[in-house]
Structures are given as C-alpha cells and as structure tokens.
Design goal:
Blueprint: H1 2-7, H2 15-27, H3 32-44, E1 47-49, H4 53-62, E2 67-69, H5 71-80
Parallel strand pairs: 1-2
Length: 81
C-alpha cells in the first residue's frame, strides 16, 4: 500500500464524455469492459498495451486517439530509442 500512496497520482476524467465514447464503442461490438478500458486510456494515455489479440484488433480498428500495441511491439519501440 505504501508504494501506491507514494507513487500514484490523482487523475481526472470527463465521465460524461467517457460514457458517451464507451457507448459508441459498444455499438461497434466491443464489450463493455474493453470499451471502458479503451475510453479511459484514450483520455489519459498515449499508448495502450494489451495481450488480448481480439481487443487489440478491435482497438486498432476504432481508436484513432491512442497507440495500441502488444507487448512485443512496445518493447521493440523502446529498444529503438
């Protein structure tokens, strides 16, 4: 618990926008949990890393605001730096 308290940071989200975006993604046959995960990642992150191939393909198809990568792609990108 100490590490979370020490290194975590408060983040804020636009929950109205998140609900709307989650519903948009659900209409495209992305599950509710995956839609919410992607929505919050879009609002807060530059990169979303996933091992779920189905989610990876769906996210790449419908998400334009964030990079979607699997762990291998992410590591390769980091090694090129």
């Amino acid at each position: 618990m100490y590490l979370l308290e020490r290194y975590s940071k408060k983040i804020s989200f636009d929950f109205v926008l998140a609900k709307k975006r989650t519903e948009e993604l659900m209409v495209k046959n992305i599950g509710v949990a995956d839609s919410a995960h992607l929505t919050f990642a879009e609002q807060y992150s530059d990169i979303l890393i996933t091992c779920d191939n189905k989610f990876y393909k769906q996210a790449k198809k419908y998400c334009i605001n964030i990079q979607i990568m699997n762990p291998v792609e992410f590591c390769a990108k980091e090694l090129r730096k």
